[in-house]
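Final report, section 2: Outcomes. Of the targets proposed, Histidine triad nucleotide-binding protein is the one most frequently requested by collaborating groups, and we therefore present its record in full.
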Amino acid sequence: MEDCLFCKIISGEIPSKKIYEDELTYVFEDIAPTAPIHYLVIPKQHISKLDEITPENSAVIAHIYEVIAKLAKDLDLKDGFRVVSNCGEQAGQSVFHIHFHLLAGRPLAWPAG
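The predicted structure is given below as tokens.
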């Protein structure tokens, strides 16, 4: 999608601090971190929101969670981590390209909202 911030990051048009990349996903540091580890895990395929997941594109979401598990192991996050995805403006979604925040490195309070 030509005007999507995350699509531009994936293509290299906008710089980012890449953490991980494979054929389906791209992971980079959040520009406004709320935890010592705050990465965004995104599919290279443009999917706007969680409510647009279908049987045709759900495999990429499963793969994202596999990537998150790999990152957690590689980063030795045995004390815990949180994965957050917002769907829609009222939930706090500001970039309409599905993404998952990987947060760790400090105690994370609950409730989150």
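The longest helix spans residues 58-74.
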